[in-house]
TrEMBL record:
Residues 328-382, 393-449, 457-515 form the MIR domain. It catalyses: a di-trans,poly-cis-dolichyl beta-D-mannosyl phosphate + L-seryl-[protein] = 3-O-(alpha-D-mannosyl)-L-seryl-[protein] + a di-trans,poly-cis-dolichyl phosphate + H(+); a di-trans,poly-cis-dolichyl beta-D-mannosyl phosphate + L-threonyl-[protein] = 3-O-(alpha-D-mannosyl)-L-threonyl-[protein] + a di-trans,poly-cis-dolichyl phosphate + H(+). Its EC number is 2.4.1.109. This is Dolichyl-phosphate-mannose--protein mannosyltransferase. Belongs to the glycosyltransferase 39 family. Transfers mannose from Dol-P-mannose to Ser or Thr residues on proteins. SUPFAM superfamilies: MIR domain (SSF82109). PANTHER family: DOLICHYL-PHOSPHATE-MANNOSE--PROTEIN MANNOSYLTRANSFERASE, PROTEIN O-MANNOSYL-TRANSFERASE 2. Keywords: Endoplasmic reticulum, Glycosyltransferase, Membrane, Repeat, Transferase, Transmembrane, Transmembrane helix. It comes from Neocallimastix californiae. PROSITE patterns: MIR. It comes from the Eukaryota.
Length: 740
């Protein structure tokens, strides 16, 4: 081909190509316009869906707030546990130290509500007492009710994170609103609405964090993980029931980390970072928040109050109004002292004129937890040695043999081979003789265990020296047995002597608390100080000990407020939480029966169905995709597991139980019902109207149950026999036969 032919060919090709481009150009433009339109439509749809979500959340929140605020002032008297938590709130306003079995966050918030409405903290919150005009109890109730109301939008958003349908999500929100137990408990100054709010918040962020796992280490992932950890710290700082939420998050975290182990696309470096992130934000952060709440607790409550004796002597020395700062440091003979047992919640060595009705029938020795002149003892030399003159100073040292003389009755601290009245395997400790009569069984050897003032010193120092008192004749150790005397001993704690006592057990160790001696100077300023960490440990172990001591009293008739854990899932019990006279506004704490019954039925059904699915998968009959199976397992485990972790530990508790201990569990039970209905309706994908009908019918029935029992939540007056028609079960007690 010559040059002219080649140029002609190229010219024709260019013309053809340009024509094709011109023909294709409109098609490409149309396609781009179509994609752009689809993108805009999707954005508009997403925006519209977001707007719809906001409207639904706002509507549910408004409805929830109305339901909780409505008639909240109907009872103008202290109702049920308002007597406890209202008074605890008062302590924060007065800044006086108290002791309770629960962590401080919820009670600090209650104190904050009182402070915000100008409450001065002087009301005593006696049960059924009418509120004074200068106490805005309505504001305090509204404050707590707001926490209960905010459970509703959290429940709806959590259901969205679990990928439930829109109708199911709305059903979940309405079920929380229509849960009679949540409504009733939210209308008063109590910890429970605050606890339930933080339980719901933790569950929400856990589900949201699970959905963020597709983009690990993104900003959303970090923020959601941090929010989950912060929620754990908050819920645990209200009540220790929050630890069950910690367990739920912990088990999910273990499952997730196991899933990441060896997973394609997850490098070793990324896997280690997953561990570090969770350690920092799911362990360190919650613990820090928990401890910070106690720091605030100690900082605010800086004055002496009713809970002093539950804390160490050193802690008490830092409270305003305590005279320990006037204590001489070095303890001497003829000093008047009080002796505190170092076991957690240990009291002061005490005696009074009453005698044991059994055993030696000598004067009783007890531990007493309040300041009293009968706690005071004088240190003397043994009978066989010359007594120290009143105007001379001889310090008590490690290894000294001493007598302890009760300042009020002049009896000597004494023990002998006589069985203790309660702890029969140990020796009785008694008050015996007087200032001139006694024997060798009055002698005790001082054995220093630890000295916080001067570790090398052999002297006994007030508040700062821990020591044992070993009986010279028998070798037994003076001990707090942990038991209490019956009524004849005023329910005070038993003191015994243990031949086989552990040298390092706190119940066998004592310290001088108050110390008076006119010949000795007061301790230098800031001598008696305890660290935050030691105070934090002391109060938490004290809370644990006190919690475990809340056992049924065999000497008293059964309490109509208590119940058993097996009664809760079937809603077999309720509680009269106030006076029940005809003229009283009466509240009956009970759950929505349909919610409670269906939750338990759904839990059993899901457990059975899951077992069947596992067998079908094993036999290669169930052909679900891996993602479908994982989503089913996650939703089933997170809902049923949340219920189980908040319910079954109740069987392990030796303490008394109340119906409201089940409330966090039934919150998860609502999600079990929703998951069950959502899963069942998935079998009607081809006929969606059937699934919607099932959910709608259940929701309508749930709302009907709520309104049928609504008087129990908003309070009713007149004879309780008027409610006889609503007393479906014999175990319910909202109605009396005679109306009394």
């Amino acid at each position: 081909m010559d040059l002219m032919d080649e140029q002609e060919l190229r010219k024709r090709i260019n013309i053809t190509t340009n024509q094709e481009i011109e023909e294709i150009q409109p098609l490409i433009q149309d396609e781009d316009d179509k994609l752009l339109k689809e993108k805009k439509d999707l954005a508009a749809k997403a925006k519209k869906e977001k707007q719809i979500q906001i409207i639904i959340v706002l509507a549910l929140t408004a409805l929830s707030l109305f339901s909780r605020y409505y008639k909240i002032a109907k009872a103008n008297v202290v109702v049920w546990d308002e007597a406890h938590f209202g008074s605890f709130g008062s302590e924060y306003i007065k800044r006086t130290f108290y002791f309770d079995v629960h962590p401080p966050l919820g009670k600090m918030l209650i104190g904050l509500s009182g402070w915000l409405c100008g409450y001065d903290g002087q009301f005593d919150w006696d049960s059924s007492k009418v509120f004074p005009e200068n106490l805005n109890f309505v504001f305090m109730r509204v404050f707590c009710a707001t926490f209960g109301a905010l459970m509703t939008p959290l429940a709806y958003l959590t259901a969205k994170e679990l990928h439930f349908s829109q109708l199911t999500c709305i059903m979940v929100g309405l079920m929380v609103i229509c849960e009679n137990a949540f409504l009733t408990i939210s209308k008063f100054v109590l910890l429970d609405p605050i606890l339930l709010f933080f339980t719901a918040l933790t569950f929400y962020f856990l589900t949201r964090f699970r959905n963020a796992r597709e983009k690990p280490f993104s900003l959303n992932w970090w923020l959601t993980l941090a929010a989950t950890g912060a929620s754990l710290g908050m819920v645990s700082s209200v009540k220790w029931v929050g630890l069950f939420s910690v367990a739920l998050v912990g088990l999910y975290t273990i499952w997730e980390l196991w899933d990441y182990l060896g997973k394609p696309g997850v490098s070793f470096k990324a896997y280690i970072l997953h561990w570090i992130a969770r350690i920092l934000l799911l362990i360190v952060l919650p613990v820090s928040i928990y401890m910070f709440n106690f720091y605030l607790h100690f900082t605010i409550l800086n004055k002496s109050g009713s809970g002093d004796s539950n804390m160490s002597s050193l802690f008490q020395a830092g409270l305003e109004g305590i005279d320990f700062t006037q204590n001489p440091v070095d303890v001497a003979y003829n000093s008047k002292i009080t002796l505190k047992n170092t076991s957690y919640g240990g009291g002061l060595l005490h005696s009074h004129i009453q005698r044991y009705p059994v055993g030696s029938e000598q004067q009783q020795i007890t531990l007493y937890h309040y300041k009293d002149a009968n706690n005071e003892w004088i240190i003397k030399k043994p009978w066989t040695e010359p007594q120290v003159p009143e105007d001379k100073i001889v310090y008590v040292k490690d290894g000294d043999i001493i007598r302890l003389v009760h300042a009020e009755t002049k009896r000597n601290l004494h023990t002998h081979n006589v069985k203790a009245p309660v702890s029969k395997k140990l020796y009785e400790v008694s008050g015996y003789g007087n200032s001139t009569i006694g024997d060798a069984n009055d002698l005790w050897k001082v054995e220093i265990v630890k000295d916080h003032y001067d570790p090398k010193s052999h002297s006994v120092h007030a508040l700062l020296t821990n020591f044992r008192l070993r009986h010279v004749q028998t070798g037994c150790l003076l001990q707090s047995s942990g038991a209490s005397y019956p009524e004849w001993g005023f329910k005070q704690s038993e003191v015994v002597c243990d031949v086989h006592g552990n040298n390092h057990a706190a119940k066998n160790i004592w310290n001088v608390e108050s110390h008076w001696n006119d010949l000795l100077p007061a301790a230098p300023l800031k001598t008696f100080r305890s660290s935050f960490l030691s105070n934090f440990i002391d109060i938490n172990v004290g809370m644990w000990t006190s919690n475990n001591s809340l056992v049924p009293d065999e000497d008293q008739e059964p309490d109509h407020l208590t119940s058993e854990a097996w009664q809760w899932p079937l809603a077999l019990v309720g509680i009269r939480i106030c006076s029940w006279g005809d003229d009283d506004v009466k509240y009956y704490l009970m759950g929505n029966p349909l919610t409670w019954w269906s939750a338990f039925a759904c839990i059993l059904f899901i457990c059975l169905l899951s077992g069947i699915y596992i067998l079908l998968r094993k036999g290669h009959v169930l052909h679900w995709k891996k993602e479908e199976w994982n989503n089913y397992c996650y939703s089933a485990l997170i809902t049923v597991g949340g219920w189980a972790l908040h319910y079954f530990p109740s069987y392990l508790m030796g303490r008394v139980l109340y119906l409201h201990h089940y409330f966090p569990a039934i919150y998860f039970g609502i999600f079990v019902v929703a998951f069950t209905l959502e899963h069942l309706t998935s079998y009607f994908k081809s006929v969606k109207i059937v699934g919607k009908a099932i959910i709608t019918l259940y929701l309508v029935a749930n709302i009907w149950f709520f309104f049928y029992f609504i008087d129990m939540s908003y309070g009713f007056t007149g004879p309780s026999s008027n409610m006889k028609s609503k007393q479906w079960l014999k175990t319910w007690s909202m109605a009396d036969e005679d109306g009394l």
